[in-house]
Amino acid sequence: MDPFTHALLGASAAQFAFGRRLPRRAWLIGAGAGLAPDLDFFIRSASDPLLNIELHRQFTHALAFIPIGGALTGLPWLLRRRTRADWRPVLGAATLAYATHGLLDACTNYGTQLLWPFADLRVAWHLVTTIGPPITLLLLLGLLGTLLGRRRCPAALGVIGCLAYLGIAVGQQARGLAAQTLIADARGHAITRAKVFPTVGNPVLWRAVYETDGVLYTDRIRLGSTPSFKPGNSVSLSAEASLPAALRSNPRVVRDYRRFARFSDGWVARAPADPEVLGDARYSLSTERFEPIWGVRFHPDRALPTEWVDFTRQNRVPLASLWREISGRDEAYRPLPAVPPG
Q1: Alpha-carbon gap, residue 25 to 138, rounded angstroms
Q2: Are 122 and 114 in contact (CB under 8 A)?
Q3: Cβ(102)–Cβ(62) under 8 Å?
């Protein structure tokens, strides 16, 4: 999730739980602790382009690290004489806010290693995008209401509103998967695995991706009162065995391919516009087609054969077309196929 939303959630949780004992400081402690886990974003290596994607959202986001993270983020406040006497609520506020970070990130597509060091599973519930304006607005209004009105209730309502939004997303996700199954059945495809990914700022539009016979099919699904869909395109998965011989003969390339495939949960495909780029098919610059936001490019003849390719700056949210889709005015959408007999 974006840093501002993390800070708001940490501040809201800390102010609600410890605002009476730390009336002027709880939200500040919570905001800092809510942001702190993302300091791992700055762990980088010039000799290892994939180090950052391996360690970001790893140990600092893990459930087991919460007591340590809470103590570390509370320490600067405990070094101040005025705050030292309140060490219990300070640590409580910092720890609670720190704990919100990893759980919120797990609601996105990126994946968070909540179970580290016991498992390297990347937990991703695919309920919201990394930028979620409704959640941010609910938290902001709740926190402002608490700070200006000096009452805990608005902050609590903001957090409850976010939980309600996520609950709606859970239901919409289930509807999206059901719709995706109908689309695949109509095409005569047996789904190997499938995901539906949320789009920015709404629980109505979802990007659906499923695999069959080594090919990924993408669609746009609108989950209004009557679900509909916009057909996308297809792209072949790029398994390790499909790499050219020159790449498979390079141990560093093979190792980095496996690291990237693990990070991408196996959703690896070549970029249609640049086949040298192996992209993460969970994300796309396009609403229907596959245009990777990031990926890797290999140069087996170089000392550093792996190049991290990042198109994030090209990512734009087309607000006008997005609203046409949400409001049901996009004529490219079709009714879902009928339920097959039996």
Answers
A1: 21
A2: no
A3: yes
Phi and psi of 12, rounded to 5°? -65, -45
The rounded distance, in Å, linking the Cα atoms of 139 and 23 is: 18
CB distance 159 to 9 below 8 Å = yes
Rounded CA Rg of the chain: 22
Nearest partner of 9 among 75, 86, 99, 73, judged by Cα = 99
User: Rounded to whole angstroms, how far apart are CA atoms 32 and 74?
Assistant: 9
Backbone angles phi, psi at 47, to 5 degrees: -95, -5
Residue 206: in which H helix or E strand, if any?
A: strand 202-212
Q: 242: which residues sit within 8 A by CB, 6+ positions away? A: none
Q: What gap in Å lies between CA 131 and CA 108, rounded to an integer?
A: 9
In tens, the pLDDT along 301-326 reads 999 999 999 988 887 777 888 899 99
Question: Mean pLDDT across the stretch 99-118?
Answer: 95
Q: Which amino acid is at 49?
A: P
Task: Output the pLDDT for position 316.
Answer: 78
Q: Give the full edge-to-edge strand order of the sheet including 334-335.
A: 193-199, 202-212, 215-222, 228-236, 334-335
Residue identified by tokens 């102010």 is 15
Residue type for position 193? R
For residue 246, what are its two tokens? 């020159």
3-state secondary structure at position 77: helix
- Residue 221 CA to its chain's centroid (Å): 19
Residue 261: the pLDDT is 95
Which residues, in sequence order, are CB contacts of 108 under 8 Å at separation 6+? 1, 124, 125, 126, 127, 128, 129, 130
Length of the chain: 342
